[in-house]
TrEMBL record:
The keyword ATP-binding does not apply. It comes from Chromobacterium phragmitis. Pfam families: NMO. Keywords: Flavoprotein, FMN, Monooxygenase, Oxidoreductase. The keyword Flavoprotein applies. Its EC number is 1.13.12.-. This is Nitronate monooxygenase. GO terms for molecular function: nitronate monooxygenase activity. InterPro entries: Aldolase_TIM (IPR013785), NMO (IPR004136).
Amino acid sequence: MKCVDDFRLQLGKHELVPIVIGGMGVDISTAQLALEAARLGGVGHISDAMVPTVADRRFNTKFVKNKLAQYKFNVENQDKSVVRFDLGMLEEATRLHVGNAMQQKRGGGLVFINCMEKLTMNAPKETLRVRMRAALDAGIDGITLAAGLHLGSFSLIEDHPRFHDAKLGIIVSSLRALQLFLKKNGRSGRMPDYVVVEGPLAGGHLGFGMDWAEYDLASIFTEIRDWLKAEQLDIPLIPAGGIFTGGDAATYLEAGAGAVQVATRFTVTRECGLPEKVQQEYFKASEADIEVNQLSPTGYPMRMIKSCPAIGDSIRPNCEAYGYLLDAKGGCSYIDAYHKAHAENPGQRRVPVWEKTCLCTHMRNFDCWTCGHYTYRLKDTTHLRSDGSYQLLSAEHVFHDYQHSKGQSIALPRKEECLLAG
Ligand SMILES: Cc1cc2nc3c(=O)[nH]c(=O)nc-3n(C[C@H](O)[C@H](O)[C@H](O)COP(=O)(O)O)c2cc1C
């Protein structure tokens, strides 16, 4: 029986352990987590979602405070079209975030950044251009294009000096999306270096409708793999979504995957950005506690733990401070849902909004508990402490479990009590 360590991912001159830790915004896949993956010879992702607030947290900058001060006059206004990002600020925040991570990189692996097209920021093209270029300037090893079709994204960086040296990849959830991307992208004269195929059991936003349960990763993976082969396109294909054990991963590698992308198992590691209180909620969740809903203003279905504070909250839209989901006209469906809820409950100050959630505010505060389908199995990957909480894991432990475990076995960590005893 084979294990992940019997395989390697070749990306240009890099020979890598074929484990990719997927991007988890906002600040869930931290630099610490990505750096561990790189140190261990794999690929880690940081995320560029809401970089100004993430930079403020890490580097004591005041990007968000300054933006809010600039647009404070507009906070009561339903029309948010005046709220724009200062591109210089966005560039600086991205450089800080990426540069700091890259400076600390050790080992033979790589650190990529996850860029979601759905973060439209009231100027989709201009802001995405700055985000990608600043990440390249700051030395990122690669960019994974996510949450969108990205039909014009390569062209935003095609004149950048690192366009050919940085690794560029895209996440798709269907062969059709990949075909569309390759067709439109053809004129950039540059193929993606890898393609992540994400199935319906992943965390975060899903590239499916509410009929997601009718799809499965293995079938989509096989369809894309066979098509790439028929077209003689030698692009590593990386399945993602529900790959929970080393055995699951090895099965895909044996079937021709270049690597696997995983995330959920790492949400309960010490290097992950989620506060420990939230991590305990992930451990405790049962299958019935997890739902796919339509609360995200992006329009994509999203998987969440049902009891998270983001659901049915009453917060006023926070676009003057954040505004990551404002579309090209300054709209966001949370703003509409918020005002609709207030119109239906006149005179009330705090009205719960059930139709949508203010994703910026709640992701930023770790109050939107997005998660993968198999989150309910996390409790089987560790020890229950005597106080009823679960022992956190190290990213190294989880990475090595994926790398070396065979079949459906999962290596448990050393018990904390033993660690304390020496
Ligand atoms: C908490 C969480 C947040 C995520 N956020 C993002 C994100 O910001 N962008 C993205 O492209 N994918 C996101 N994902 C998807 C992962 O990168 C990954 O592809 C997927 O979850 C892998 O499946 P697994 O979690 O079952 O291992 C997220 C996943 C989780 C669990």
